[in-house]
Structures are given as structure tokens and as C-alpha cells.
Design goal:
By secondary structure, the chain is of the alpha+beta class. Helix content is about 30%, strand content about 25%.
């Protein structure tokens, strides 16, 4: 089987790493990929938003299976585009069409969807530039902190938690009047702040059947003890100590089943991943957000724990045969520590030589933003490497991931030294 992955981050390297282990994988391509994917697959200089070039690549390379990693091509309709190519009718695709990808592409759509199907979520209202004044008045009636979310895709940076009324009014005005997030912020969802602990649950759906993959917790803020600006993710842990079987059963019953029933009701044939961002509040699950793909860096802790043949799993998803698969999950704990460029998530410099990668033992370094050039691996993004360790205990997995994070070197390297530490001392 010839397989193509779209994307260039740590999630896509983890996909490639897992797919390459399967005897069913003949040839593996990643477009555009990075220095890590080049170690297990062939990188292709094709942008994941150039739909015509992707279709031509699928033809040229006789691709049997396409896995779409990032949200942008999904929201822009890559699946719809390929389904319109009559000569690609037999292509298997893992990823929803544009209608399904609205779960992530529009915060307003997903909130209305949750309300329609009785899925527990924070109370909210949506405002536009035309209703800015009503929005400012609404803020005056609200308790704080409060959450403001750009409706569209904003590269993980479209969420602001305002601690005071003044901050909230400034943020709402900047987003709607000042176009802080461009078109993504033309609508803003203002929502109640939920107090609890966060985790993510990942659902693999074939349009009819589904499997719930191992859960994970990620760490979004740049600073230790969750301080400083939000990032794309500074690390992750799986499994999650506070996600008991009884809690995960509630997630299945109150969130996953009604979500899939709702999609069917809306006429959406959803084949791919649904990332459910949750808050556990007094033992109950509330949905913070949906994503129409796997999370990053959560993929880098979820896939190492998955013991199934990943090609088999992806084919079953595309063929509507997930009911024939039994998930096999390792009981080990996986911890990933993200190494990022100096200055991230603000301005940062790339092109720094990465050294000591060859010395890493008993961990997996998933490349997130790297480039191979002149015999060196260089930094090529804000998030550079996801260092994943597995062990029989959370403490040992944390220690192994942190030791490896210390060992790898590049100018300006930053990382959090507390990934997973809160879970070691966690008690309900």
C-alpha cells in the first residue's frame, strides 16, 4: 500500500513513525514533511493547501491511502476536492469533509451544534462587529474570568482568557473592530470560564462505528505552572490519572455518542479523528472545543501507547470497518516534553543547528519544526522537537523525557521542566 500524509509537524512525524512499522506499508510519503519524517518516509515538496498539486501527487505516486494531518486543508475542503476527481474514486481518505471540519473551523457552529444535541458545554453568546456594542454590554453582566474565542482558525492563538471587565472589553474590541485575528475573528464566541481540570479524548470514526483512543493531557502555556501566553502545546501525558473508567464512560455516554448521532442527523458522513477538548468539572465532562484532527503534541503520547497495526486501523476507518478492530493499548505512561525556539510563542529565529540528537536512547524525538540541510538538522519553527519517553510509571516517564530534553542542544532552546509533575501529586 502506498500512503501519503499531509503535514509537516510532530503529529505527522508520529503518524509516519507508526505507519512505517506496518508490513502493510509499501511506500510512505509526507508532504511537505520535515527532517524527522525524512528518516522514515520520502518527503515531497508539496504544500498541504495546494489541492491540485496534491491530486497530481496522488496520481503520480499511485497513492492508496491519504491521511490529512492539519486542520487547514480539512476546513478548506481537501476531502471534497479529491472526491470530485472521478479518477480518484478508489482513494481511501482519513479526514472529514468541509462540512464535518466545521466542528473545528467555526467555534460558533460547534457551540450551536452542542446546544442542538444536548452536549454539555459552557454557556456562551456569539458577537460580530455589528453587534459589538451588545457584546460590550453583555460583558458587564458577566462574572470573571471570561473566555473570548475567535470563531475561525487562528493557529491555536485565537483564545483569550480575560481576568477583568476592562481586559475583556479591550480584547473583544481588538478582535471585532481591530481585526486582531483577521477573518478568523469576524465572529467572537464569549463564553463562561469553567473551573476544573483539562484533558483531551480522541475519537476515531468511520462514519458508522467509532473507537476511543487513549486520552491525554497537554500543557498549553509557555511557562511553568501554566503561566505566560498560550502556545500550540508544550508537552503532553497519557494516560491521565484523573480520567477514571467511570469518568470516561460519562464522556462516551454524554459527549461522544450524542456528537456522532448529531453528525449523522446533520447528514455529515464523518471519517477521521475527532479531538474532544474537555474540562472535568465536579466529576462531569464539559466540552471546551472540538478539533477535526489529532492534537499536537498529544499524538506524540497517544500513538506510542497504541499497539495496533496503524495501517490496518486507518484502512478500517476509511472502509467503514472499525467494528472489526479491537484496540490494543499499552498500560505504560508516555510523556512528551516540547523543545521550542527562544522567543516562542512570540518572534523567534530559525536555522539553529540541533546537536546531541544522536545520543538519545530509549526515547523518541518527534520532529515538529526541523529542516535537514548540509548534513545538519536545523530548527525550522517555534516548536522544534517533541521528546517522548515511555515507562512503567509516570515518575519514570517524566524523568526520562526531561533528561533527554536537557541533552539536546540548540541556541535559544526553551522547554518546560514541569510537564506531568502536577499529575504525580494529583488528588481528586
Amino acid at each position: 500500500m502506498n500512503i501519503l500524509i499531509l503535514g509537516s509537524g510532530g503529529r505527522e512525524h508520529a503518524f509516519a513513525w507508526k505507519l512505517a512499522q506496518s508490513p502493510l506499508c509499501d511506500t510512505l510519503f509526507v508532504a511537505p514533511g520535515n527532517a524527522g519524517t525524512a528518516q522514515v518516509a520520502t518527503n515531497l515538496p508539496v504544500s498541504y493547501t495546494d489541492f491540485t498539486a496534491i491530486a497530481n501527487t496522488i496520481r503520480d505516486k499511485n497513492i492508496d491511502l491519504l491521511i490529512v494531518g492539519p486542520e487547514e486543508p480539512l476546513v478548506k475542503g481537501i476531502v471534497d476536492f479529491l472526491r470530485q476527481q472521478s479518477d480518484l474514486a478508489s482513494l481511501r481518505i482519513v479526514g472529514p469533509d468541509a462540512k464535518g471540519a466545521q466542528l473545528e473551523g467555526s467555534k460558533d457552529f460547534s457551540k450551536q451544534f452542542m446546544l442542538r444535541y444536548g452536549i454539555p458545554t459552557a454557556a456562551s453568546q456569539t458577537f460580530t462587529a455589528e453587534t459589538l456594542q451588545q457584546g460590550l454590554t453583555y460583558l458587564e453582566t458577566h462574572s470573571f474570568p471570561i473566555v473570548l474565542k475567535a470563531d475561525g482558525l487562528a493557529a491555536g492563538k485565537g483564545v483569550i482568557i480575560a481576568e477583568t471587565l476592562a481586559d475583556a472589553k479591550t480584547a473583544l474590541t481588538d478582535m471585532l473592530d481591530g481585526h486582531k485575528f483577521g477573518d478568523a475573528g469576524s465572529k467572537v464566541v464569549v463564553e463562561q470560564f469553567l473551573r476544573g481540570v483539562e484533558l483531551s479524548v480522541f475519537v476515531l470514526c468511520d462514519g458508522e462505528n467509532y473507537k476511543i483512543l487513549p486520552e491525554a493531557k497537554d500543557y498549553k502555556r509557555i511557562g511553568e505552572e501554566d503561566t505566560g501566553p498560550n502556545t500550540g502545546g508544550m508537552g503532553a501525558v497519557s494516560p491521565v490519572v484523573f480520567a477514571s473508567q467511570s469518568f470516561l464512560q460519562k464522556v462516551d455516554d454524554k459527549v461522544v455518542k450524542p456528537t456522532l448521532a448529531g453528525l449523522k442527523q446533520e447528514g455529515i458522513h464523518y471519517q477521521g479523528f475527532i479531538f474532544v477538548g474537555l474540562m472535568k468539572v465536579n466529576g462531569e465532562p464539559f466540552v471546551i472545543e472540538y478539533n477535526a484532527r489529532m492534537g499536537d503534541p498529544e499524538t506524540e503520547v497517544v500513538l506510542p501507547r497504541l499497539q495496533n497495526d496503524f495501517v490496518e486501523l486507518m484502512v478500517a476507518t476509511a472502509d467503514g470497518e472499525l467494528d472489526q478492530i479491537s484496540l490494543q493499548v499499552s498500560p505504560q505512561t508516555a510523556v512528551t516534553t516540547m523543545l521550542v525556539s527562544g522567543g516562542y510563542p512570540g518572534d523567534y529565529v530559525t536555522g539553529k543547528i540541533i546537536s546531541e540528537l544522536g545520543r538519545l536512547e530509549d526515547v523518541t524525538a518527534f520532529h515538529a519544526g526541523t529542516l535537514a540541510q548540509d548534513g545538519h538538522v536545523l530548527t525550522n519553527g517555534g516548536r522544534v522537537l517533541a521528546i517522548t519517553a515511555q515507562a512503567n510509571s509516570l515518575e519514570n516517564a517524566v524523568r526520562k523525557s526531561q533528561e533527554a530534553a536537557r541533552m539536546v542542544q540548540f541556541d535559544g532552546k526553551q522547554y518546560r521542566k514541569d510537564i506531568g509533575v502536577d499529575l504525580i501529586r494529583y488528588s481528586d
